[in-house]
Amino acid sequence: MSVNKIGVIGAGMMGSEIALVFAMAGKDVMIMEPEQARLDKAEAGIRKTLEGGVARKFWAEEDMATALGNITMVTDLSAYGDRDLVIEAVFEDEKVKAEVYKTLDEVCKDDAIIASNTSSISISVLASYFSEKRQSRFLGLHFFSPVSRMKLVEVIRGMDTDDAVIDAARNACVEAGKTPIDVKDVVGFAVNRILFAMWDEVLRLVEEGACTPEDIDTGCKLGLGHPVGPFELMDNISNTLNLQVAEILHEAYGERFHPRPILRQVVAAGRAGRRAGRGWYRYDEKGKRIA
């Protein structure tokens, strides 16, 4: 089961970079957003990634030169009828995803593989929004941000996902330079459950006045060998999304994942993170940390 034509739904940071890594692997890639302005922003972001010095550590110059030519941007899912693999990377909300799946059910070819990049919602629950014939061809592919640098992909099997679908999706990820791991369909999967448990504790430390976010970030980088500190990572991902995922984990697992009050406060204050110019730290208009 070969995967050559890929569609990505959602042109945010995750969606655009998922599209980029498959384009770098020589795949024919489409990105869909209903608003042209968001597609224009995604294209600018992809160009910025390709022009950055970090990209040259991961990709050959000739591949980067052709990557944009492998990407088509569209404003309607009707163009996805020929896609071998479609990856949904929209807002982390079950109802929003369900509306997308309704359209995909009608548009995609019978043997298309459909995946969600959800970081927390059960794949078997999401599969239930498809017709029964589609459910065996649906799975989770959870990429990690920034996708252009992070090699991990969690591969999550739903109750009815076919073995051949899992194999084809894993192979496509490997071709894009990723390392897949298999994770059972539990809310939050594996890495996010570990991550949010750690975040709960670092947020407690700040609430207690034991450490500043900057000191904790320094401690995790120099003492634990983490490439980026937890508060830096929260800002990069978006504190708004972090709170949404924390709520999902809390609903599934109870008090062990209760969202910390300080995270609610930061989100309510509009400090969403790097892209908003303010999170746990301040950032300039180019997203560079200034304080």
Automatic annotation (TrEMBL):
3-hydroxyacyl-CoA dehydrogenase NAD binding domain segment(s): 5-186
Biological source species: Nisaea acidiphila
Site, as annotated: Important for catalytic activity: 142
Highest taxon of source: Bacteria
Cited InterPro entries: 3-OHacyl-CoA_DH, 3-OHacyl-CoA_DH_NAD-bd, 3HC_DH_C, 6-PGluconate_DH-like_C_sf, 6PGD_dom2, NAD(P)-bd_dom_sf
Keywords: Membrane, Oxidoreductase, Transmembrane, Transmembrane helix
TM spans (from-to): 6-25
Protein name from the UniProt record: 3-hydroxyacyl-CoA dehydrogenase family protein
